[in-house]
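Consider this record:
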Amino acid sequence: MPADPTGGSDAIAEALGSLPSGTPVSEVARRLLDLFTSGDIAPGTRLPAERQLATSLGVGRSAVREALAALEMLGIVDVRPGSGTYLRGEASALLPQTLRWGLLIGERNTAELIELRSGLEIYVARMAATHASSEARDTLAGHLDDMRAAGDDLQAFAKADYAFHLALADAAGNATLRDLLHVVRSLLQVYSDRAVHTLEAAQLALAEHEAVARALDANDADAAASAMAVHMVTAGERLAESAR
């Protein structure tokens, strides 16, 4: 059962356990995240003071302070001057922020992120083929129109391309899947923005998106997944090239 939001600092501190001396801030944050996403702490719970957390973890107060500051930036905790630090949201609602932190603090492997994105996009296309509403299909068609209208404005094309994929993820009807894909795409965004850098590449990408849309209109999940798989091969190659 989740802890009482009005108390439980001693229980929280005890549950954390100690870390080895010299543990980096990233590991302090990981330990805090493990507890925050366990479901044992209710949203709005006031966390122990920095000094108490530092003592429980066996680390310096500065490490705790930096870890909490990072978690605040990710929207996981709310630091209220003069009041304390409080947990935000249910455990499930913290998933996107938690995943983003986990990917960012490690050594990011772009090739692995591209592979992960490919798998997620293919599954999204399959799901959307059977779950997309007529309104969602109209939205996707509108983004395709924007891609066609972009002409040689590659920045406008990239914006419409991104919007198409976001709308497709929404159409799949699975919020967790959408959030996972959003996190991965955001980590690759710096490369995605410059991946389509020729008109020829834009025309090829448009044709691939149109193939996905046709499969959705036919309610053909296998064809949608296959069309997206084809697109992910060329898109992945462009991303990998722009990341070099």
